[in-house]
């Protein structure tokens, strides 16, 4: 597996369990790339849905992907604080300047006060049946949901205040470098 380089622009592709494309983020700047972790950032990037509809993200976001955890975390930087949107998903793979993962429907919305809501449980149940998620996948996903909720309560990883400060500063640095070119 290749490793994305800091400063590189990549795409993010989300798939469903059946292999169909779900969503594409056109451009994300890599802030850190290792075999296990990719941290990226984007602002006002074009997103294309599976049905061809497009929209543009509204605020800067720091994105956290891990090759061992079955979730990814989008940290949305809003005027009234950081909001998090977590996709319960497969670990990422990376090739051809594209980070890819399987979206497993369950999502968690986390508010600046670290309160949270689990979303799309009905969609998960429907897709689990339609796409025949194996029982082992169901167990892995629920175990990782529990792990994620622990991270939120403990303010670990992207939920730690210094995470946002450090990676936002790094993103600002890369934006200033791009503007100089």
From TrEMBL:
Its cofactor is Mg(2+). Keywords: Hydrolase, Magnesium, Metal-binding. Pfam families: DUF402. GO terms for molecular function: magnesium ion binding; nucleoside diphosphate phosphatase activity; ribonucleoside triphosphate phosphatase activity. The active site is at 23 (proton donor). Its EC number is 3.6.1.15, 3.6.1.6. Mg(2+) 1 binds at residues 87, 103, 107. Mg(2+) 2 binds at residues 105, 107, 120, 123. Gene3D superfamilies: FomD-like. Coiled coil: none annotated. InterPro entries: DUF402, FomD-like_sf, Ntdp-like, SA1684. Residues 18-156 form the DUF402 domain. It comes from the Bacteria. It catalyses: a ribonucleoside 5'-diphosphate + H2O = a ribonucleoside 5'-phosphate + phosphate + H(+); a ribonucleoside 5'-triphosphate + H2O = a ribonucleoside 5'-diphosphate + phosphate + H(+). Belongs to the Ntdp family. Has nucleoside phosphatase activity towards nucleoside triphosphates and nucleoside diphosphates. This is Nucleoside triphosphate/diphosphate phosphatase. It comes from Sporosarcina pasteurii (Bacillus pasteurii).
